[in-house]
Amino acid sequence: MEKRTLGKDGLIVSALGLGCMGMSDFYGPGDDAESIAAIHKAMDSGVTFFDTADIYGIGRNEELVGRAIRDRRDKVVIATKFGNVRKGDGGWVGINGRPEYVRSACEASLKRLGIDTIDLYYQHRVDPATPIEETVGAMAELVREGKIRHLGLSEASPATIRRAHAVHPITALQTEYSLWSRDVEAEILPTCRDLGIGFVAYSPLGRGFLAGRFASPSEVAEGDVRKNHPRFHEENFQKNLAILKALKEQAKERGCTPAQLALAWLLVRGRDIVPIPGTKHVQYLEENLGAMNLRLTPPEVASIEAAIPAGITAGTRYPEGGMKNVNG
Fold it and tell me: What region, left, alpha or beta, does residue 208 occupy, with left being phi > 0 and alpha being psi -120 to 50 degrees?
C-alpha cells in the first residue's frame, strides 16, 4: 500500500483510507461483525487510516472502531470529529465549537475509542457562533496535553482555514471531493496547497452513485439519508445517470470498475489527496483497493474529465439545511 503524508508535520497514512460512518449510521442498518471484518481486512491490506466521528451512531461508531483496532493500535491512524451535536434519539441539536465543549467531546471520544491519543481530530463543521480562533485554540491545548496529535477541519472555507492555521498548524482539511463534486478545485484545494495542508476526500464515490450501486432512486432504502439528498431525487437522479454511463464506458476501456476508476482519478489529482471511501462490506472494500493498481496517464485523465466535466452534476450535495453548514 502506497503511503502519503498529510500536512507539514509529517502525518503518514495509507493512500486510501476507510470511512467507517456507514457501519453504524445514515445508510441503513449495519452488522458489527461484518464491519469489524471489513476493518480487519483493510488493515491486512495495508490500510492504516480510519475515519469516524462522535455523531456516527451517536458514539457507537467510535466504540466499534475502538474494538476493531484494540490489538493493533500501533498500526493505525485514527481520525475522529467533534462539533455536530445530536440528541440520543438522533435528532439534530446544532453545531458547537465552544472551547469547553471541545474538551468534553475529546474526552468522550477517547473513552469510546479506548485510546490515549487521537491521531487526527477534526472540527466536523464550523460553528458560526464561535470564533475559529477560540475553537482551534482549545484544540491546540489538547495537543499540548498529548490527547491529540494533529488538528483538522471539515467543510471549512478558505478564509476560515487561514485563520485556523494561524493559530495552530492544520494537518488536514476534509471535504467532499469526487468526479461529481469538484467545487473544491476553485479555492479550497489551492488554499490547502498554499498552506501545506493535506486534503482528505470524503464521499469519493458519490455516496455509492459513482460505484453504480443504484439504478433508480427507488433502490435507496427507507431510512437511508440519501433519500433526502437532492442528487438522489428522481429528476436529478435521471440526469446524473449520464455521469455514471460515461464513467462506466471509461472504466470498460481500462478493464476496471467505475468505483476503481473514480478513486484512481482522485489519487492522481495530487499526492496530498487521500480519499476515504466508506463501506461495511469486505467485497466492496476489496473492489476499492483495486484502484491502487491503476496508474492513469495524463491523456487518460484528460479523457475522463472531458467525458465528465466539472459542474455537470444535477442537484446540491446536501438538502438546503445541510448546505448552510458547508464551507463555513
Answer: left
Q: For residue 297, what are the CA distances in angstroms to 112, 129, 264?
A: 43, 46, 11
The string of DSSP codes covering 23-61 is GTSSSS---HHHHHHHHHHHHHTT--EEE--TTTTTTHH
Backbone angles phi, psi at 282, to 5 degrees: -60, -40
pTM of the full structure: 0.96
Q: Residue 56 catalytic?
A: yes
Distance CA 205, CA 251 (A): 14
User: What amino acid is encoded at 304 in this protein?
Assistant: I
Alpha-carbon gap, residue 307 to 287, rounded angstroms: 23
Measured from the Cβ of residue 186, the count of other Cβ atoms closer than 10 Å reads 11
Smallest CA-to-CA distance from 115 within 157, 154, 80 is with: 80
Q: What is the C-alpha separation between 7 and 168, in angstroms, rounded?
A: 12
- DSSP, collapsed to helix, strand or coil, labels residue 4 as strand
Band the pLDDT of 26: cuts 50, 70, 90: confident
pLDDT digits (tens, 9 = 90+) for 279-309: 999 999 999 999 999 999 999 999 999 999 9
Nearest Cα neighbor of 114 from 71, 70, 49, 48 is 70
Report pLDDT for 30. Answer: 83
Mean pLDDT value of segment 122-142: 98
27, 56, 101, 318: the active-site residue? 56
